[in-house]
Amino acid sequence: VIFANVPFAIIGLVLAASWAFARRDLDASALRGAPRSAAAVREPSANPMVRGSVRVSVYEQRVGLAVWAPGTATMGLGFASMARSMVPLLEQSPFFRVMFAGQSHADLLALFLGRSWSGALELVLALFAVTQVSRWVSDDLEGRLEMVLSTPTARRRVVLDRALSLAAGAGIISGASALAVGLASVKNGLGLRALDVLLAAPLLVLFALMFGAIGAVVASRAPRVAVPAVALFAVLSYLLQQVGPMFAWPRSITRLSAFELYGAPKYR
After folding, report:
1. How large is the average pLDDT for residues 94-119?
2. Which of 202, 204, 180 is CA-nearest to residue 192?
3. What global pTM score does this model have?
4. Which region, left, alpha or beta, applies to residue 102 given φ > 0 means left and ψ of -120 to 50 means alpha?
């Protein structure tokens, strides 16, 4: 019954999307609220977050970061809470035994978090970097970059501001997740060193900056291709790192993955 209704659902969604696209104005939403009148504002805002291009960029993404950070923190709590129960299952599974070959039982707990939580967080940060590349491409194609350059602002300053903005957002996301894992480690008695967990946050920021740099280079040559190219590279790199060790692929193949080159952190 469900599959029989899928074509009708697709047709309905296409018709609704077509109606909304035709109804909306240029660069506006299809669902517009009633216009409101307000007093003219002639004084600059006292909000310190709107002073400085990097702070403005982070402030504009406050709603998105309010979703990314708690989401990754919840993910970290989930991995940390099930780590102790998952290690015996990994020891009994020949499928995962290949990934943890030659490791002692004491190290399996840290290795599990290094492979599972860190790997998942790396993927999240890579996808976050893809969203930032999408913002940069939109600025380039829609004329906002020309407005910034006309202030005047040097192009190298724009590149630096974008990198710092990406680093700030990635730091908030990875810091929230690392803090959650650290608290869960203390509560569940995982024995992880707090310093090692805290060091994971800035190191993962560098990982996100790598994808941002790749996206910036591709966007400078082919902006419309940058977002799908970086997203595809991130997903394929993650799958290669996860699947390669299971099937004992040679290192010459698995090292093509950016996740494999970064490595699996060991929190001991």
Report:
1. 65
2. 180
3. 0.78
4. left
